[in-house]
Hints:
Blueprint: H1 2-13, H2 15-30, E1 42-45, H3 47-52, E2 54-55, H4 56-62, H5 69-77, E3 81-83, E4 86-87, E5 94-95, E6 106-110, E7 114-120
Parallel strand pairs: 1-7
Antiparallel strand pairs: 2-5, 3-4, 3-6, 6-7
Helix pairs in contact: 1-2, 4-5
Amino acid sequence: xKVLANACTTMLHGPDATEAAAETAKRAFETGGxxxxxxxxxxxxxxxxxxxxxxAFDLLRRVSLCASGGEARKLIKNGGGxxxxxALAKDDQLITLEDRNEEGLIKLSAGKKRHVLVKPH
Length: 121
């Protein structure tokens, strides 16, 4: 399972992202999960897409927190999809530039252990 996850991450995001994700996971387990936002992987998403708004289920898929839109919809329905640490109310909720935090990033989570930061570019 770990090898498959590493292969998928490498294929989608490259070897540097795979190493960063592995290091983040290692630090998370070594520190009992207490990580600052800076330790999370950052995924670039075009600013124009976020200006229009991206449905939550689609963004979870685009940043590889879910393998498909259907998986993302199910995750959100069951309360596991989060935007800036708050459960997403609807799977088609639009995520926009308005959802950025004070650092200009958007935190997306799938469950308790999988998180990414979305950076508009």
